[in-house]
Structure formats: C-alpha cells, structure tokens
Amino acid sequence: MALRIKNLWFREDRPRSTREVAGAAAFVVWRVGMHVLQNMRRADFEILPGPAYFAFLAEWLVFLIQVADRLAWQHLGEAERVEFTTTLANRVAEIHADNRADLLGLVAANELLSAAVPQHHPDRDHFIDLLNLRSQDYADFDIDPGHLAVPVTRYLAERLIQVLGERDRMWVHDQVMEIEAPDAAAHLLRGLNGLFGLTPRPARRRAGPAGE
Predict the structure, then answer these.
(1) Which of 26, 34, 50, 139 has its CA 20 to 30 A from that of 81?
(2) pLDDT higher than threshold 50 for residue 211
(3) Where are the chain's structural domains?
(4) Burial of 41 (0-12, 13-18, 19+ CB in 10 A)
C-alpha cells in the first residue's frame, strides 16, 4: 500500500530552525515505522498489539533514526546535525512512549510530570537506552539511504528476529532485506529531502482571466 507523506512546508515565508525540521522529521519517521509494521502484518507476520508490538516498532524507529542521521550528516553542519538528531530522537521516543502507554495503559499516577520535580517517562527512557545501544552497532555500517547495503539490512533483520514469534522468524530476512528496509529508507529519504528544502515545490497554477 502506498504511503503519502507531506514533506513540504505549508508556508515559505520564513526559514525553519533545526529543531522545527527535526520535530517534523519525527512524525515522518513515526509514519514510516507504522507503515512498515502494517505492511508486515498484511504479509501475515503475527505482530499482535502488546509489548512485542512496540518492541518490534522500536527496532524500526531506531533504524530509521540512523538513516535520518546519515542524511543530516550529508546536508547539515556538525552542530546542526547533533541538534537535529538529538531533537529527532527525543521526539520519536516521546511519540513511541505515548502510544505504548495509550495502548497498554502503563501510565501510573506517580509517573506524571511534576512542575517542581521533572520526571522522565520510563518508556521514553527505555527507548533512548535502546537507541544508544543500537547506535554503537549501526555506527559500524555504511548507511546510504538511496542504496542500503546488505550488512545493515541483515543486522536489522537479526534484531527483529529477537522480538518476533518462532512462527515468523524464518521469513524475516527476506521480507526485511528485500522489501521493507529499502522501501522504508526511500520513503524517509523523500520525506526528509522535502523538509531539508531539497525537493522543488510544484509550480502554482496561475489564475486565468476572469470569466474563463
């Protein structure tokens, strides 16, 4: 199923800050991750709502953040890249934690934010811990969003095997390496190119003379 992503700013009257671009990129990453999950469920992978569902999704989101970081490296200065990726990672972590809590009902009263003593949502912290752990491994891979190399897609498939049931494990490599990972990277590349201002805007239609 095709995925449509809004990747152009509605208004062009001012430049966007790195934080604004990263915030918008987080929603692109989330939509692409959910699209992959839905695709794999349609392909008869048994990914039922529950902890494993969000563990599966987290691995994809972590992978997509790595791809986004490599794109930022190509188009941003080092300081901007750090700000972009940090903001992106934190926002994706928040979206993942909020959706997990909404579905699984894991938010307890003592986990609510306090104005006097700020607290972290444990699900958000868990996602950031996973991201930091995986980033150490992904740093060793060449990640070209336009042409993903086999080693990085195989690594992603191996991580997914750990969160899928035994029934689905033997099919993961083919589905991820040949279909889902390249498609996800292509969707993300298209989305971020628009947010980075690298996609030409379509020409606006000129109004004809009155009465036409």
Answers:
(1) 34
(2) no
(3) 18-106+121-195
(4) middle
pLDDT, mean of residues 185-189: 93
Sort 173 into a burial class: Cβ within 10 Å, 0-12 / 13-18 / 19+.
middle
The label of the residue with tokens 């912290």 reads 125
User: Percent of the chain beyond pLDDT 90?
Assistant: 57
The three state secondary structure string of 17-64 is: CHHHHHHHHHHHHHHHHHHHHHHHHHCCCCCCCCHHHHHHHHHHHHHH
Residue type, 88: L
201 pLDDT above the threshold of 80: no
pLDDT of residue 101: 84
User: How many residues can be counted in the chain?
Assistant: 212
- Kindly tell me if the per-residue pLDDT of 206 is higher than 80: no
Closest CA to 185 of 44, 9, 29: 29
